[in-house]
C-alpha cells in the first residue's frame, strides 16, 4: 500500500526580502497574523500590528497597537499610531477577520451579525486603506495584501455572512488594484484554504459537531498535497506578494490551499 504524499516543510532559512520595508499588519496576535508578523520581521521589515487585546508575547522590535479595527475609531487609532511609529509605510496587510458560524443556516444569522462580519472582514480593510493610501500614492509605491478565505469559493450556509464579506473584499481588491496600479501601488488578494489556527479550528469543530463530518458544510474536501495548511504557509505567500519579487503582480487572487479547491 502506498503511503500518503505529505508536502515538505516550509523552508526555514531566512529570506531577507523585506529589508527596509515598513509594514502594517492587522490581526497580528495569533494564527496567520502572528505568523505573518514573524515572517516579516525575519525578512527585515519593521512592523506595526494590532489586535483587540494585548498578546502575551511578540517578536523583538514589533510595535503593537490595541485597536478594534471592526470600528472606525479603532482603524483611525491604528493608522495614526502606525504613521507616528513608522513614518513612511510600504506595506499594508489586512488580515484581521472573525465570524461565528450559525448551524441553523442563513435564516439563523441575525442582522447584527451580518453587520459585524461586514465590519471586521470587509470594511476594516476599506477604512485602513483609505487612511493610509494617500501617503502611498504620494510616494508612488507600495503593496497591499487583503486576506480573503476559500469559503468564498464554496460558501457553506452556516458561514454565509463571513463568506459574503470576504467575497466583497476580493471584489474590492480587484477594483482598487485597477486604480492604484498607475500610481505605483500593487493590490492583491490572498485566499487561504484549510489552515490550522485557534480560531479556524474552533469554527470547524463547531460545524462538524453540529452537522457531522460527512456534510458539505464541514468542508471535508480532500487536500491533494496531503495535509492541512500551517499559518507559516500563508505567511510565506503574503511575504512574497508584499516583496519586490512580486513587482509585476497586481489585481491577482493567490489561492493557497494545497490544491483543495479546484478552480478554472
From TrEMBL:
Domain of life of the organism in this record?
Bacteria
User: Which residues belong to the signal peptide in this entry?
Assistant: none
Q: Which Pfam families match?
A: adh_short_C2
Keywords in alphabetical order: Oxidoreductase
User: Looking at the keywords, is Signal present?
Assistant: no
The family this protein is said to belong to: Belongs to the short-chain dehydrogenases/reductases (SDR) family.
Q: Which PANTHER family match?
A: OXIDOREDUCTASE, SHORT-CHAIN DEHYDROGENASE/REDUCTASE FAMILY (AFU_ORTHOLOGUE AFUA_5G02870), SHORT-CHAIN DEHYDROGENASE_REDUCTASE FAMILY PROTEIN
Recorded protein name is SDR family oxidoreductase
Source species of the chain: Mycolicibacterium austroafricanum (Mycobacterium austroafricanum)
Lineage summary: Bacteria, Bacillati, Actinomycetota, Actinomycetes, Mycobacteriales
Amino acid at each position: 500500500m502506498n503511503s500518503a504524499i505529505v508536502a515538505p516543510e516550509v523552508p526555514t532559512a531566512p529570506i531577507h526580502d523585506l529589508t527596509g520595508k515598513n509594514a502594517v499588519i492587522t490581526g497580528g496576535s495569533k494564527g496567520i497574523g502572528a505568523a505573518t508578523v514573524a515572517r516579516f520581521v525575519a525578512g527585515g521589515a519593521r512592523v506595526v500590528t494590532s489586535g483587540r487585546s494585548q498578546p502575551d508575547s511578540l517578536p523583538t522590535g514589533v510595535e503593537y497597537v490595541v485597536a478594534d479595527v471592526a470600528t472606525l475609531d479603532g482603524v483611525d487609532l491604528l493608522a495614526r499610531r502606525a504613521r507616528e511609529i513608522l513614518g513612511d509605510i510600504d506595506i499594508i496587510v489586512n488580515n484581521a477577520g472573525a465570524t461565528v458560524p450559525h448551524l441553523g443556516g442563513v435564516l439563523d444569522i441575525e442582522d447584527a451579525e451580518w453587520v459585524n462580519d461586514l465590519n471586521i472582514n470587509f470594511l476594516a480593510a476599506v477604512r485602513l486603506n483609505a487612511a493610509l493610501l494617500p501617503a502611498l500614492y504620494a510616494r508612488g509605491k507600495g503593496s497591499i495584501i487583503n486576506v480573503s478565505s476559500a469559503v468564498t469559493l464554496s460558501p457553506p450556509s452556516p458561514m454565509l455572512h463571513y463568506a459574503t464579506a470576504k467575497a466583497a473584499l476580493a471584489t474590492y481588491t480587484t477594483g482598487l488594484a485597477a486604480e492604484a496600479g498607475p500610481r505605483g501601488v500593487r493590490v492583491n488578494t490572498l485566499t487561504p484554504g484549510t489552515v490550522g489556527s485557534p480560531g479556524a479550528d474552533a469554527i470547524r469543530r463547531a460545524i462538524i459537531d453540529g452537522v457531522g463530518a460527512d456534510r458539505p458544510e464541514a468542508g471535508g474536501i480532500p487536500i491533494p498535497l496531503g495535509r492541512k495548511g500551517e499559518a507559516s504557509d500563508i505567511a510565506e505567500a503574503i511575504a512574497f506578494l508584499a516583496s519586490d519579487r512580486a513587482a509585476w503582480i497586481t489585481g491577482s487572487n493567490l489561492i493557497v490551499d494545497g490544491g483543495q479547491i479546484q478552480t478554472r
